[in-house]
Each structure stands twice: as structure tokens, then as C-alpha cells.
Amino acid sequence: MTATAPELTALAQGWCALSLLHGRIEAHLERALQAGHGLSVREYSLLDVLSRQHDGEGGHLQMKQVADSVVLSQSATTRLVTRLEDRGLLMRYLCPTDRRGIYTNVSDAGLVLLEQARPTNEAALRAALVEASEDPRLEPLVRTVEAANAPMGVAA
User: Fold this and answer.
1) 24-81 pLDDT, tens per residue?
2) Is the pTM of this model over 0.90?
């Protein structure tokens, strides 16, 4: 099979369309969140993931789980946590049962900002999808995104 086989070309075109849709959505969200709340998409995602933690068993996430959820490396996630902590939006503390573990929680100020930013994120996402649905290459993917309304869990 050659690199120009129809199966490979179709697969590559599908991947390019998915990548294009992701890029358009992310750029739309980035502009809206920065303008309205001074947050990047990654910062918003991190606050959102951490806000869903709870005090019950398995409720606090390890940094690897957080990194997987926001699609960053562990080191990039740690730097992002530090930046948001410096802004007073997150706080770290030692695990009460394992002094080697460090937990990260969203501060009260972070929760307020997150709640203010949620409608902006939702509106920007909807607008980006409407815009993308006008592109025939992206319209089937937009339908798939809209149909995938099951809540996303945290990666294990």
C-alpha cells in the first residue's frame, strides 16, 4: 500500500478536519475567556477539573490525573498550578493521611471566577460550533460533538 492509497488519504483528511475543528474551537474559547475573565483555555480547564474534586474516597486527584484531564504534561500542569496559585485562584496543602501527597484545590476566589467564566465558555463553544458547522468539512464532526453529550469523567 502506498502513502497515497485512498484509505490513508481519507484517514489523513479526517484527522486534519478534526484538528482544524479543535483549533477553531480552542481559538474561539481563548479569545472569549481572555477578554471576559483574563483566563486562558488551559487555566479555565484546570479550574474546572479541580472544582469537581470532592473529599470522599478517591475524590482528590493526583497530578498525573489532573495533567491527563487538561491534556498537558505533568511538568506543564505543575507550572500552571503554580501560576494560578500565585494569582490566588488555587491552593495546595498536604494530604492528611500521606504527608508525601500534595492536593490542589480551587480557592474561593477561583470558584467565583470559574462560575463567572462558565457562561462565557459555554456561549463561545456554542458560537464556535455554529460557525464550524457552516464548513462542509467540519459539519459532520460538529454533529458528532453535539451528539456526544455524556459528561466527561476524569481520566484514571
Assistant:
1) 999 999 999 999 999 999 999 999 999 998 777 767 888 888 899 999 999 999 999 9
2) no
In angstroms, the CA 41 to CA 16 distance is 21
> Per the structure block, which three cell numbers stand in for 13?
483528511
Helix or strand holding residue 94 (H, E) = strand 90-94
Q: 109 vs 14, which has greater pLDDT? A: 109
For the segment 132-142, the average pLDDT, to the nearest whole number, is: 94
Cβ(44)–Cβ(33) below 8 Å: yes
DSSP structural state of residue 60: S
Packing angle of the helix pair 41-51, 74-86 (nearest 10 deg): 90
**Integer CA distances (angstroms), 117 to 38, 70, 83, 87, 93, in order:** 10, 17, 18, 16, 25
| Alpha-helical regions (H) of the chain | 6-37, 41-51, 63-70, 74-86, 108-133, 139-147
- Torsion region of 58: left, alpha or beta (phi above 0 gives left; psi -120 to 50 gives alpha): left
Would you give the distance in Å from CA 117 to the centre of its chain? 13
How far apart are the C-alpha atoms of 65 and 7, rounded to whole Å? 35
